[in-house]
Amino acid sequence: MWSVRASALSSRLRAEIPAEPATFQQVYDTHVDYVWRTVCRLGIRGAAVQDVTQEVFLVVHRKLAEFEGRASVKTWLFRIARRVVRGHRRTMRRKDGHTDAAADVDEVPADVESGPDVSAAKAEAVRLLYQILDTLDEDKREVFVLAELEQWPAPQIAQALEVNVNTVYSRLRLAREGFNLALARHRARDHWRTT
Amino acid sequence: MTELDPEAKQLIELARDGEGPSPQARSRLRGALLARVGAGVAITSAASGTAAAGGAAVHSTSVLAIVAKIGAAAVLAGGIGAAALAQSHTPMPTEERSAAPVRMPAPLQTSKPAHPAEGTPAPAQAPIPTA
Asked: Which is nearest to A58 in space by CA: A40, A84, A37, A34?
């Protein structure tokens, strides 16, 4: 399983990007956390996170030989994750309007190095982040995730989403406004509750 | 361009540290993936194994058939040769030679009658195709 070689990786790619992984195992080991995070950030929750991440890697396993290296592995993985997430969401919508459960404890790893307080604070931050991301629509959310959380430059985001760079900037502006507003609302509610 | 509020940036920084699968989730994912992808590999191996076995069977069958044919041809040639040799080395009297039965090879067993007269009339002979 783990030794499927990306035989179609061109010699050009091998020469130019020697650090790029060539086997499924390498892709999996290097990027499993990134794919998991991306799946969560794109709105998948609970037990479905594992299913969707698994589905992404099944696609990777099937398509790795076709990967030509025109984009980076991360960009390629994001495209796959995005398609799988959208497909999963469509399937869920078709089934009795089911929405994924709230964040599972497994989505937020226990931080054994920091103390329990820091760990709880991080877990709370992750929950709040996902909650606010849920308020953004799909297109803006994707741009926001790539720009603010992954820190990708606009041209790479444009390539991953197959849109114009100006579209990326426009969506990012709206996404930031939406994010600021949602966080302010949350803080206001929180403040009202505690007073 | 609108910037993120400092509070939003702080939230993102904190959340970024806390994201990712737990060790248990990572282990479950790996196991589940191994089961799915490993099964695929097993199926592929089984399919190719069956094909290889089938190929080997066909191969061995054809080899056996060829060996049998060669053996039969050798026995037949040997028999004919021996008979010819025996006939040439043991001269028989003229009367006996004329009365000696002519040994004919056994006719091949076919579903068609040996003689056209015994069954349906003989069909018109098809022209022999020229190369």
From this structure: A84
